[in-house]
Records
---
Amino acid sequence: MKLVLTEEQEFLRDTAKNFAQERTPVTHFRELRDNKDKNLWDRDIWQEMVNLGWSGILVPEEFGGSNFGVAGISVILQECGKTLTPSPLFSTGVLGAYAISNFGTQAQKEKYLPKIVSGEITSALAVDESSHHDPLKTSFKAEKNNEEYLLNGKKTFVIDGASADILIVLARTSGNSGELAGLTLFIIDSNADGLNRIKLDMADSRNYANIEFNDVKCSKKEILGTIETGGETVERILDIGRIAMSAEMLGNAESAFETTIEYLKQRKQFGVLIGTFQALQHRAAEMFCEIELTKSAVMAAVQGADENSNELQRLSSLAKTIAGETLHLVSNEAIQMHGGIGVTDEYDLGFFIKRSRVAEQIFGSSTYHTERYANLSGF
């Protein structure tokens, strides 16, 4: 496994870096938050990202995509993470595109993938039902009614759920909560009768929703994958999502670290630069080492995904664990090294620690993935 980027991936990274710096600096995110934008992402900016081909990175060429793989989308998310770029790229370009490309029927692919690539629709993955991530504890019901299914229940913390055009919903068609068997994925139109979306106000000012289903009808043609094998399918989708999120979190950590190092080189206390204080140098060195370790973990997971490694689950949990711990450390240290001004709204660092605390919980915290990694390793 070579932990280096190809020429094409380096081109994607450089393009994403220039785009993020020029079109979506942190001031762009601040403006959306202050203006209380209903989507908390800009449709014109999203269309520019679509025009660059980012929404089709994980989509096969026959449906209009480029099929550049998880490595391609990850380098983009890493650069976007450095400026806290808000967009539906993760929920649509990663989760939705990957799910339908790899598990959809030919009819589903022809129906949805070209629209995802063109930016005509966005998607969201609805999995969790409580404050803790655990797909196996799904109790959300889908009951067969002739040629349709009736969906009833509630999904929580759905990323981009307040604006998505289609929802990929994990439901239980048989069995009991806690069992792997009996889970099925459905593709649902977000405007379906009986569906109610409740927008959430989260610390990181992103787009989330709780979604209630009351006898929402879904044709059996909209089952994603095979009925009652959705447990294995959703874990694969989630693992790709966890790797992509880890890449974005790495970008968050890199930016917070770079900002802190610049501050240490400029801020004077007692007449000397605080960057000369040995204690702060040691803390900065620790952050640097943890970021380098995270780069290796994320790159290994990315390569494992594109190579269809048998170790994908372990690599995914390892990357999410380390990325979460590193971002937690770096965002904390960045605030402390800036002193009191670090928590004021006029400084961007506050956005990074808020994003950190939410991103750490997406599809499983470090605690969840440490336990998962141990179980997968036979401990």
---
Amino acid sequence: MKKIFITIISLLIFNVIGQAQKLNSAGIVSVYTQGVRISPDMAESLLRIEVTKTERYNVFDKLDMKEIIESANINAETCYGKKCMLSIGKAAEVDKIITGSIEDLGKKIVITVKILDIASESYDKIVIQEFINLETELQLMVQITVNKALGIENDPNIANNLIYYNQPPQTPITYTKNSGPRMGVAVVGGELGSVLTASEEYGGYDMFPVLSQIGYQFEGAYLSAGNFQALVEGLVLFTGIEQNMFNPSFTFINGFRSSKNGWEIGFGPTFRGKRTANGYYINDSGKLEDWRLPYEWNGQDTSGVYISNPNQIVERMDKRGGVKLSAGWVWAIGKTFHSGYLNIPVNAYFSHSKEGFYTGISVGFNIAKKEN
């Protein structure tokens, strides 16, 4: 009795294994692509990798399929229809042909996976999944779609970050909050750079002309239509903290950004505090080392007679002077990179005024939030 029981169990196991092996025969061919930067051949490889990883099919090797297709005189580059797929499946003697497509439709990437049963000449499954337009995550998108087609549960944390969810239509005017911290580095030039690097004896700061910057950016898109957004930005920065310099500034920028590729350009006024003093240059030379404050004029000749200062009194930046508001103009260009819902703006800028200029690079991060 025991031997009979073991024999029956063994036959059942072998039968299940045999059927599983039969069902696990599949070929991956002809993945159509449109608008994305990967080739159909690369897209086919992605689909083959993800189907193989599920261990639901015994997937034919890429080179084996290529040899079979060539032997059957089939042009795989134009073989996208059901009839052609059946021809490939019968030539390869597989149970299933799995194919699909990857298409860029502007705001979203649409991935399709189709499983064709060769015996019944009908599709077992056709799955269409829409994702946010993030080409760097194409393999994850293919994985999510394949799992959905095969009834495999996806990790919701990964899927929710990539799947495109339809939202109600918005009017062309939409206010978008897109704020976050900023940090960067600036090179200072012109008279401003000369004063910063000058000795304190001449009213300078005795600093290196490369300064760190840290602060916060407030940004909104007040007009969004087509592929462009009109932006307004407010930027508060603290410059030169590492060199014991406390120089806050506020910049107001109006600009434009491409919604398609993230490139942007902006311009606007900037305001910062500066220390200035009235003084003169010896013999009106204009040289930094000849700069003096009025009280430094001795006013006497060799005979002791007072002589008024013949040099022109002018106002100039001077660490020993009082604080006043200074205005300038900023030009900026940059690009916003995306990683899921995280935005990483990178900008190069040039800020100039009659005292000199700042030029540098600024980097930040934020998460987009919308409100009508």
---
Amino acid sequence: MAQFQAAVSRNETLIRVLEAAARMALPGWYLVAGCLYQTVWNVVTGQPPEAGILDYDLAYFDASDLSWDAEDAIIQAGRTVFGGLTAPVQIRNQARVHLWYEHKFGVPCPPHSSAEAAIDTFEATTACVGVRTQPGGRWRIYAPHGLADVFNLVVRPNPALAPRDVYQAKTTRWQRQWPSLTVLPWPAAAPRTGTGTA
């Protein structure tokens, strides 16, 4: 975990997002997925820490109000908090994912019970990682599949929820930016495809 923290800390934008997210104090929040493992890939392959990172995903979990208006209020607040950064910050309430996921990706999504449960369903086990800071500046790192694949540049599919075409679309882009990645194939026992795009 210390190696992971040291690697992602080299991304100055990521650290700024973490610090600002802590001030927002959203329930069950994590900075998740791409900005984390892609920063590690950059460090491992000798690229600038922020290379190829399209955005920074901030997940939180609030089941007390599942309306779009409540989530949008947080998104609008985030535009002020994260204004001036070099890449956008995408804020999403993981308690609402089941309301739109099937329309976007073509497969149903059971309601998540926590932000961690949502992270567990990301399209690759390599992507199942979240970080937040706690009082005193300590980091909480959630990585249910460990971090070895992240440092070894291995992308392993996670057919828990996301359809195969989402995995394939994302890994195609990733391999263009990080050609040394080893992308493992979608398992034959889980041939599910959706109708959306990544």
